[in-house]
């Protein structure tokens, strides 16, 4: 995500609808391939959702764990980019899988655990309805 | 993956071509959505590849880290299923991202770290050419 | 920790001083070797501290990362034991190291992320003064 | 570990006995507190052991998981220091706990997974006799 229209780091004031639309429009590639839509973005919290479709499942009919790791990776990377205003590289993605999902919407919330000069740690909680189904801890390096 | 045609746990003797084809044919959903093809499968090692396409990238033009986590999750789950002959559930997916990939093929090899009665730990190394680009450590619970 | 004097799972009502003393008296071995003292214990939160001493440091004069992982492991295990009322086994300890500590007190707070029948996931945040210095995500199996 | 007597990065040629003794003599603090002794050190592999004593156990009589994380942290940090010849900082310690130990010796072997300019990833396998009991994946930042 290069965010050509968003040259400054995002602060606690959330993006407005036009800025969110621009952010989602730039979030192509794998984000789009898994159907991720960002719905809230400030330096304190990002939110997105993915509507479960047959191509998210494994053969036993539940959402493939890679989908959660991918949501965590993509939302956490967006978080580090927009809050640092710099390019970032993911270093490690630790995703705990807590409960199975067969259908409906996966909603994710990213919050910062550690925002340093050279690294960030973001925590992304994913829910299906009220149920916590997965958590990603994503560590990223901020490129200077 | 339910492996209806492969009722017994796979041993050290690798699957033949027809069995591999059956395994890939069952590996629908997200495995197919990310373009994963399994090329070797025994109780000691599984191998697969994904050819990088634009829908695997993030906006900066490199493969989204979620792709590696998804390859690790999917190949490691297949590994636990075929070697245990039982249903399994992923518990945690820890993926270290080591180097960026922009094009070509990602080749993955899964080897068992710990094969217990109630849990498995598989390690999946991913390479682009000769370069190690990511490693997943996948812990799974074996359902009885 | 076998908690012979605490036969029932601990609920949201915190332990009183006598019960805390009993809990700490049972928490021998490595917990004692690293100087850990539990100061609060309910099903919703556990707290402990370790006062930094020379034997916690590495040669460069900062606290060895293993100390944080050990605090996370020990407090998270206590948490799973007292809230489940059963024996537990640690499965994986993922500790993110965020900031260096040279002296003073490390204070830790454990909160439940997922409390299932067969597994628990606890998150342990460690601070030095106001600064978050490490976070452990500890997954445990509950033995029936 | 500052390795005042070992000013150059260690290469594939292992340390001799006098150099190993110097390395262990510098490895004070927590390494000494947990009883760790390094027995082999080259850029391709480090080895150490810890003899299990009552202060390594938790109340149920098995080795506290924090001991394995601490061995992984300390041996992996030594590995990054001696092979880079620079100061390093641990970033994340992911330790999988595979089997319980009640007595005897824990032997650990560290091998490099990724040796980059700014980060290292080391993998530390720990055994009790022939049995693999724990594995640490330790990510470190190399300070310039």
TrEMBL record, chains A, B, C, D:
<keyword id="KW-0378">Hydrolase</keyword>
<feature type="domain" description="Thioesterase">
    <location>
        <begin position="61"/>
        <end position="132"/>
    </location>
</feature>
<dbReference type="InterPro" id="IPR003736">
    <property type="entry name" value="PAAI_dom"/>
</dbReference>
<protein>
    <submittedName>
        <fullName>Putative esterase</fullName>
        <ecNumber>3.1.2.-</ecNumber>
    </submittedName>
</protein>
<dbReference type="InterPro" id="IPR029069">
    <property type="entry name" value="HotDog_dom_sf"/>
</dbReference>
<dbReference type="InterPro" id="IPR006683">
    <property type="entry name" value="Thioestr_dom"/>
</dbReference>
<dbReference type="GO" id="GO:0061522">
    <property type="term" value="F:1,4-dihydroxy-2-naphthoyl-CoA thioesterase activity"/>
</dbReference>
<dbReference type="GO" id="GO:0005829">
    <property type="term" value="C:cytosol"/>
</dbReference>
<dbReference type="Pfam" id="PF03061">
    <property type="entry name" value="4HBT"/>
</dbReference>
<comment type="similarity">
    <text>Belongs to the thioesterase PaaI family.</text>
</comment>
């Amino acid at each position: 995500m290069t965010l050509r229209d968003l040259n400054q780091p995002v602060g606690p004031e959330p993006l407005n609808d036009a800025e969110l639309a621009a952010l989602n429009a730039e979030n192509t590639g794998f984000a789009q391939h898994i159907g991720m839509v960002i719905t809230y973005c400030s330096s304190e919290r990002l939110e997105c959702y993915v509507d479960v479709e047959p191509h998210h499942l494994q053969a036993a009919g539940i959402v493939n764990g890679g989908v959660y790791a991918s949501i965590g990776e993509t939302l956490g990377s967006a978080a580090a980019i927009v809050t640092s205003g710099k390019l970032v590289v993911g270093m490690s993605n630790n995703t705990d899988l807590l409960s199975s999902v067969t259908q409906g919407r996966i909603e994710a919330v990213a919050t910062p655990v550690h925002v340093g000069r050279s690294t960030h740690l973001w925590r992304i909680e994913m829910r299906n309805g009220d149920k916590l189904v997965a958590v990603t801890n994503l560590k990223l390096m901020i490129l200077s």
